From TrEMBL, chain A:
<dbReference type="InterPro" id="IPR055221">
    <property type="entry name" value="PSF3_N"/>
</dbReference>
<dbReference type="GO" id="GO:0000811">
    <property type="term" value="C:GINS complex"/>
</dbReference>
<dbReference type="Pfam" id="PF05916">
    <property type="entry name" value="Sld5"/>
</dbReference>
<dbReference type="GO" id="GO:1902975">
    <property type="term" value="P:mitotic DNA replication initiation"/>
</dbReference>
<feature type="domain" description="GINS subunit">
    <location>
        <begin position="59"/>
        <end position="154"/>
    </location>
</feature>
<dbReference type="InterPro" id="IPR021151">
    <property type="entry name" value="GINS_A"/>
</dbReference>
<protein>
    <recommendedName>
        <fullName>GINS subunit domain-containing protein</fullName>
    </recommendedName>
</protein>
TrEMBL record, chain B:
<protein>
    <recommendedName>
        <fullName>GINS subunit domain-containing protein</fullName>
    </recommendedName>
</protein>
<dbReference type="InterPro" id="IPR036224">
    <property type="entry name" value="GINS_bundle-like_dom_sf"/>
</dbReference>
<dbReference type="InterPro" id="IPR056783">
    <property type="entry name" value="PSF1_C"/>
</dbReference>
<keyword id="KW-0539">Nucleus</keyword>
<feature type="coiled-coil region">
    <location>
        <begin position="33"/>
        <end position="63"/>
    </location>
</feature>
<keyword id="KW-0235">DNA replication</keyword>
<keyword id="KW-0175">Coiled coil</keyword>
UniProtKB/TrEMBL annotation, chain C:
<dbReference type="GO" id="GO:0006260">
    <property type="term" value="P:DNA replication"/>
</dbReference>
<comment type="similarity">
    <text>Belongs to the GINS2/PSF2 family.</text>
</comment>
<dbReference type="Pfam" id="PF05916">
    <property type="entry name" value="Sld5"/>
</dbReference>
<feature type="domain" description="GINS subunit">
    <location>
        <begin position="76"/>
        <end position="171"/>
    </location>
</feature>
<dbReference type="InterPro" id="IPR036224">
    <property type="entry name" value="GINS_bundle-like_dom_sf"/>
</dbReference>
<dbReference type="InterPro" id="IPR056784">
    <property type="entry name" value="PSF2_N"/>
</dbReference>
<feature type="compositionally biased region" description="Polar residues">
    <location>
        <begin position="184"/>
        <end position="197"/>
    </location>
</feature>
Length: 182, 197, 211
């Protein structure tokens, strides 16, 4: 998550780090340069008052309107796979507390969609909606899916002792009735 | 971008299915270490420049200082990513002892670096000595057991094995009635399967 | 034992829940004579042919598999009682009926090992399936009501296996809501003069029920 790019403005100059600013002719970053930095660097420089941080695009008014209109249909993963995590960490940096309420609102309305699909839908039919989920929502979905799957497996019965999953999947025969081996 | 390569290393871990082990990426690992050295050289040279100008590194806040800060942060970031990479793999490697047993099959061995292989051996030995002190095999019955004896089918030619007081020849496709605790390890290694007649 | 199958999650696997259910006591009718058994969990027996005895389920199953006893199916597993239970489940969308805490596991163990002791086996089987479906649907509907103000979920009469299935999902959901609704993230609309206790501030405990 901390690799997510943040748009920042340098409040100071920095020598010997020209790589950060593709527009720089010298090996330095000038004061006032507008650069995209990964979150971890932007954050630490902000704490040292070396940069100011702009609100990331996924929390702008346009996204907010889309979420208000139809939260479940918005492809948040495309905008930022770590939407909620980045939001939480951005709030103290940009001092815009409305992001917090926006995150809660987005999560609450999207949560219902995840819930309705998570326990009872087979993964194949969920494939249309899965790619729109952020990391956090996907984990929620998968937690439900895997616990349901393991319950179903238990109900069907059969052998409990299995090949360790870390080993290759080839020759996976755990069902009581096997096709005759060649 | 600084730190990008190190995060790619972690991306490899994240992309792998949970609980799976990826091949140890020594190339990228070494490159990141090289990057670290690079950052260190730059950092030192910026500090030297400040010292030459008789500036106090503790209090001066000039361009050189912030350049040095950025190199320092990048260095720390890289280091953190490398540690995370090692740590996560070490956790998986520890779990191998419980899931597979003392001897690792070729397909796993290939994915480990030399020191990771040593780590597994030592970790495994520590568990063994603890278990022999207890006189109890802690690695069996990871799933609540049902019967002390189970019927199994051999999936691969294992050969002559001595199980307790029993000498047994395990040839492919043969079916045997074994103590479950004896069979468990063969099953988790994929050499046998439980045979529910 | 929780989490032995997956040390990273502190949850029980389905076989582990079944293992716990095997300690439930059930009645058997032995067809053999046997001395008392002295176990860590207690003494059982002595056993005499045709005289009912109470034993833990795991022992009942072990004896049954060796043909040493018949298992007396518990009363709640009769067609009559299950039909009642199913109707009651359907009629009260807000509550769960009182069923044994391990009804899912016990019924499955009996279907697997003592199906000849169950009268109307197929009927019983399908009734239990239906009851479970209705109840699970209720759980899902109830989960919709979780919001930022929820800090605990009360699930009266839910059984061990049912809780176990939804546990990973609920835990993550509550954590996410808790995080997004924390005071650091949200502007508090109330004036600061209105000082209520921290606990009251988190909102009421929410019963897991459809509205």
């Amino acid at each position: 998550m901390e690799e997510e790019p943040m748009s920042v403005v340098f409040q100071v100059g920095a020598n010997g780090v020209g790589l950060l600013d593709p527009g720089s002719e010298t090996n330095n970053v000038e004061k006032g340069a507008k650069v995209d930095l990964p979150f971890w660097l932007a954050h630490d420089l902000y704490l040292r008052q070396a940069t100011s941080i702009n609100v990331p695009a996924c929390f702008n008014q346009k996204t907010r309107k889309e979420i208000q209109a139809d939260a479940a249909c918005v492809d948040l993963r495309m905008r930022c796979p770590y939407f909620y995590e980045l939001g939480c960490k951005t709030v103290p940096l940009v001092g815009d507390k409305s992001i917090g309420s926006f995150l809660l609102q987005a999560f609450s309305s999207r949560y219902k969609e995840v819930l309705s699909k998570s326990h009872s839908t087979p993964t194949t039919t969920a494939s249309k909606f899965l790619p729109r989920l952020t990391k956090e929502e996907t984990q929620l979905f998968e937690a439900a899916q895997s616990s349901m799957a393991s319950f179903k497996k238990w109900r069907v019965g059969g052998s409990r002792l299995e090949k360790a999953s870390i080993l290759g999947k080839k020759r996976k025969t755990t069902l009581p009735i096997d096709p005759p081996s060649p | 971008m600084y730190g990008r390569r190190a995060s790619q290393l972690l991306g490899e871990l994240a992309a792998a299915e949970t609980g799976q082990l990826t091949v140890y990426n020594s190339d990228t690992f070494d490159q990141v270490i090289k990057e670290c050295n690079e950052h260190n050289v730059q950092l030192q040279s910026l500090f030297r420049k400040m010292e030459e100008q008789n500036l106090d590194i503790q209090t001066t806040r000039n361009e050189d200082y912030f350049g040095a800060v950025i190199h320092h942060l990048s260095l720390a970031r890289n280091k953190r990513c490398l540690m995370a990479y090692m740590y996560n793999r070490a956790e998986t490697i520890q779990s191998l002892r419980w899931k597979i047993g003392k001897k690792l099959p070729q397909e796993i061995q290939e994915k480990l670096s030399f020191s990771e292989g040593e780590y597994f051996k030592n970790h495994s030995a520590a568990i063994d000595s603890y278990m022999s002190e207890l006189d109890l095999d802690l690695t069996v019955d990871m799933i609540p057991p049902k019967d002390p004896y189970i019927q199994i089918r051999v999936l691969d030619d294992i050969g002559e094995v001595s199980l307790g007081d029993l000498e047994i020849s395990l040839t492919r496709h043969s079916v045997h009635f074994l103590r479950r605790t004896d069979a468990e390890q063969f099953i988790s290694q994929g050499l046998m399967e439980e045979f529910l007649g | 034992m929780a989490g032995q199958s997956d040390p990273h999650l502190s949850i029980f696997s389905a076989p582990e829940v079944e293992f716990l259910a095997e300690d439930e006591v059930i009645e058997i009718v032995p067809n053999i004579r046997m001395e008392s058994l002295h176990m860590i969990c207690g003494d059982f027996g002595p056993f005499f042919p045709q005289i009912a005895a109470k034993v833990p389920l795991w022992l009942a199953v072990a004896l049954k598999r060796r043909g040493k006893c018949a298992i007396r199916v518990p009363e709640w597993m009769s067609v009559e009682r299950l039909t009642q239970a199913l109707e009651a489940e359907r009629e009260s969308p807000r509550e769960f009926q009182t069923l044994p805490f391990h009804y899912v596991e016990i019924s499955r163990l009996l279907f697997d090992h003592a199906h000849d002791d169950i009268p109307d086996e197929y009927m019983v089987r399908s009734l239990i399936e239906d009851i479970r479906d209705v109840r699970f649907h209720k759980v899902e509907t109830g989960l919709e009501s979780i919001s930022g103000r929820t800090h605990a979920v009360k699930l009266k009469n839910l059984s061990a296996m049912e809780v176990n299935i939804v546990r990973p999902f609920i835990i993550r959901t509550l954590q996410a809501f808790y995080k997004h609704d924390s005071p650091q993230m949200i502007q508090q609309p109330e004036a600061t003069g209105n000082r209520r206790s921290q606990v009251a501030d988190r909102g009421p405990r929410r019963d897991l029920r459809p509205r």
